[in-house]
Every structure is written in C-alpha cells, then in structure tokens.
Amino acid sequence: MNKKGYIITIYSLAHLVVDFSCAFLMFSRVNNSSQWYLCILLYNFCAFAMQMPIGLLADKINRNAIFAAAGCAFVALSFSISNFFVPCAVIAGLGNGLFHVGGGIDVLNVSKEKSSALGIFVSPGAFGLYLGTLFGKKSELSSILIVVILLAMAAAILAICYKVKGSFVSDNSPVSFKNMDSPAFLLAVISLFIVVCLRSYVGMLLDFPWKAEKSWGLILICAIVLGKACGGILADAIGSFKASFLSLGISAILFVFSQYPVAGILAVFLFNMTMPITLWAVARILPGVKGFSFGLLTFGLFLGFMPVYFGLNPIIHTSLGFAMASLISLGLLLFGLRKAVVQE
Hints:
Blueprint: H1 3-30, H2 36-49, H3 51-61, H4 64-80, H5 85-110, H6 115-122, H7 124-138, H8 143-165, H9 183-205, H10 216-238, H11 240-255, H12 261-271, H13 275-285, H14 290-309, H15 319-342
Helix pairs in contact: 1-4, 1-5, 1-6, 1-7, 1-8, 2-5, 2-14, 3-5, 3-14, 4-5, 4-8, 5-6, 5-14, 6-10, 6-13, 7-10, 9-13, 9-14, 9-15, 10-11, 10-12, 11-12, 11-15, 13-14, 13-15
C-alpha cells in the first residue's frame, strides 16, 4: 500500500470508530435523561455547525492530523464525564467536528482532490452511526474498550501521518476566499449548499414500510455506505456531470416505486452517490479554505436536521416528493458543478 492508501485507510477506519463511539455514547448514556432533546441539539450543533469555524482554524494552522487526533481524544474524554449530560454532548460533538475537519482536509490533500478518496472516507460514518445506535440502546459494550480504541486511533493517525510526511505540517493551501468575489462562484456554492440541506432533510424523513422487515434495515444502511463510496469512484471514472445525472436521475424514477424494497434500496443507494461529488465541488471552488468548505456543507446537514428536530410538518413525505427532491438536487448540483469543473 502506498502513502496515500495508508492515510485514506486510517482516516476511514477512524471515521467508523468516531461515529460509532458518538452514537453509542448518546444512546447508552444520554438517551434516557430528561435533557435528551437539549443534548441532541447541542451535539449536532457542535458536530456539524461548528465545523465551519473549526475548519477555517484548521486551514490556517495547517496541522490536520493533530485536529483529527484531538477529535478522537475529545470523544474519548466525553465518556469520562457522561454523567454530566450537557457537557458530555458538547465535548463529544466538538470531538466529532474536529476529527471530520482534520481527516477531511488531509484526504482531500493526499488524493489530489479526487472524489473517490472522499467517498471512501465519508462512507463508513453511516455504518458507525447505525452500529453505535444499535449497541448503545442495548448497552452491550464496555465503554473502557471504546475509549482505548479511540485513543489508539488518535495515536495511529499521528504516527502514520508523521511517517508519511516526516512532520505534522500539512499541505494546506494558503487561506484564501479568492473566488467569493465572483457572483457566479458564490451562486455555485449556494447551490451546492442547498443540495446538502435537501439531502440531509430527505435523509431524516426517509421511512419505508418494509424497513423493519427481515434484514431490509441493515441492507438500507449498506446502500447508504456503498452509495457514498461508489459515487466518488464513478465520478472519477466518467466525470462528475455524468455521475450526478445518472445517479440522481435514476434515483428519482426509483423513488416513485420505493414501496417495493429493492426499488427503495437502489433509490437510496443512488441518492447518496452525490455526497462525495458535492464535497469535491465546493473544495474545487474554494481551494484556499478546504476545511471551511467541508464545514460549510456540514452546516447544511445541521440545517436539514432542524425542521425534524422541532417537529415541523414535513414538506416531503411521499414517494413522489422524494423523487422531486432528487430532481431538484440534480438541477442545483449540475449548476454548481459548472464552476467546480472550471477550476480543474
């Protein structure tokens, strides 16, 4: 395995561990407390919305591995204060955000901003959340073991990145928002941001009648994981425009028939394929602030979560609505990609 492969592998594995740990913590320790709704809001705010300022700081400091390792350490620390529910949720959320920013920028840097590496990095997170929630609700795992694994991940990130680069200094570009003085580029970023908001909102609302039957729930999670990974690979193979058109176009058709398990699984698989493409596109438009661009899109994830958190009546709640969401996402994504491709 080459140097690039080692870095992508350790960050992808750590992503699985970090998201598993956060979900396990929230559902094993915080879930039954009277402060649950406040804690889940604070956790999501710190984990997703705070990635914007954390990302800008990481862009400036240029020590991505330290940010990612610190994220693992923060999540480990949160287990030691799990009886204090609000601080626990805040520290765990900040740890999650630190890890994602540090890991995301490093993966972008070593992959020369190819979508495939981003897809491999982001995809294990969904599986980690699923397993962490499952084990957390049953409380069938030792917290000490999780903390040890988190600290081992932090040490492994630092060791591998130091061995590959010879120091902890990263390859971040000088901080610059140079393209944001152009209305066309700004509109492209806004379009891509709305795509992520919409994807997050749809993901929160997706609920199929067959989901609890047999093993369809697990298969659905696998479809999300594989969709994110395969989306980046497909984009590198045939181009981001074609990959986006095929994935979202076909998913729109399949969502209409999502009452059938196979159609619904394939629709979700294809819908998630554009996740790494969106991340790649914003990083292309804002090459001087990759961490900030990463955080900007995770802020979109947070906004997509908010209407569901506050119990607002869903705008999209039918198969036809999910199909329309795919088509709207396709139009916005293609618009944003025009400026991202210009940067190549």
